[in-house]
Each structure stands twice: as C-alpha cells, then as structure tokens.
Write a structure and sequence with these properties.
This protein has about 190 residues and is mainly alpha-helical. It has helices at about 10-45, 50-85, 90-120, 135-140, 150-185.
Length: about 190
C-alpha cells in the first residue's frame, strides 16, 4: 500500500524503527560505559552524604546510568516493533519507553550541566576532597589519596561532556521513537 493520508508505508516504518532502535542501543551502551567510568574512577571515592555538591555528582551520575538503561530498553522495543508491527502492546511499550527515556535523559542533561558548572565553579576541589594536599604533592597515588589526582579534574569534565552529548542524542532519537509510536497508534 502506498502513502495514505500522510502515513508512512509499513516497510518504511520498519526501516526507520530498525535504524532508530540500533542507534538508541549504541548510544545507551556508550552512555552506560561513560557513567560507569566516571563512577569507577572518581565518584566512588568522592560522594558523601554530608556534601551537597558531591551528592549531586553521585545522583546525577546514577541517574545517567539509569537513563542509559532506559534508552537501551527503548532501542530494543523499537527493534522488536520493527520486526512485528502488528501488536498494539509493542506500540504502547515503545510509546511509554520512549517518553520515559526522553524525560529521564532531559533530567540527566540538566543535572550534568549543573555538575559541570559546579565543578568549574569550585575548580575541582570537591573531586579532590578525599586527597590531602600533602599527598598530592608527594605521590600521585598514596594511601591518603585513593586515585591518581593529577588528571581527575580534566578527565571527569571530559567524560561528563561526552555524556552530555550522548544524552542530547538520546533525547533526539527517543523523541523520534515517540513520534513513530504516536503515528503507528494513530494518536
């Protein structure tokens, strides 16, 4: 069947859903890895409940990892729907997952912007809080400093910048899935 009343041909839906689903899978996995790197190299040593800034870092990073998992789920749902266009349950699942992914990624994007701003504002002092200044001068890694403090500031900011770009791309492709689901459900 050809284009009818502005709707895409089912074969076209399949291709767009498959491509979008694959992109979301890749983006979600990359963002998950980025969040895990930030947590594993720095934040697991830095986050304390007594410091609001470090707590913000931890919450934002954890939310970013959760958003990445939601994006992967959205990608899987889009791929599944590209294979089986018929069941309405798959269309509703894609609608819910893409809406949730878009909103969660938007919140993470805003949280990352705040984290980057806070880090630039305090010049990385919160990131270096577990290290005493004497231990930084004597040796890069010592008992007083659980990680190499020489590159923490730039590495963390770089990883957050990558995560920020990935979140923006996830939002774009999640919204694309949302619009496709709305069109398939004729809403």
């Amino acid at each position: 069947s050809a284009l009818v009343s502005g709707h895409l041909h089912p074969g076209r839906h399949r291709k767009v859903l498959m491509r979008t689903g694959l992109v979301l899978l890749i983006l979600g996995h990359l963002n998950f890895i980025t969040g895990a790197l930030v947590h594993g190299t720095v934040l697991r040593f830095v986050v304390t409940a007594r410091d609001a800034t470090s707590l913000h870092y931890g919450v934002t990073n954890s939310a970013s990892v959760i958003a990445a998992l939601l994006t992967v789920s959205c990608g899987v749902s889009a791929l599944l729907l590209s294979r089986y266009l018929g069941p309405a349950a798959f269309k509703w699942a894609l609608l819910a997952l893409s809406a949730g992914s878009s909103l969660c990624c938007l919140c993470c994007l805003l949280g990352l912007l705040v984290a980057i701003g806070l880090t630039l504002g305090n010049q990385g002092r919160v990131l270096l809080a577990p290290c005493s200044m004497a231990s930084i001068a004597l040796a890069p890694v010592s008992r007083e400093c659980p990680f190499d403090p020489t590159r923490v500031y730039s590495s963390t900011l770089s990883l957050w910048a990558i995560s920020l770009l990935l979140e923006a791309a996830e939002i774009f492709f999640s919204i694309r899935c949302l619009l496709l689901a709305l069109e398939l459900l004729r809403l």
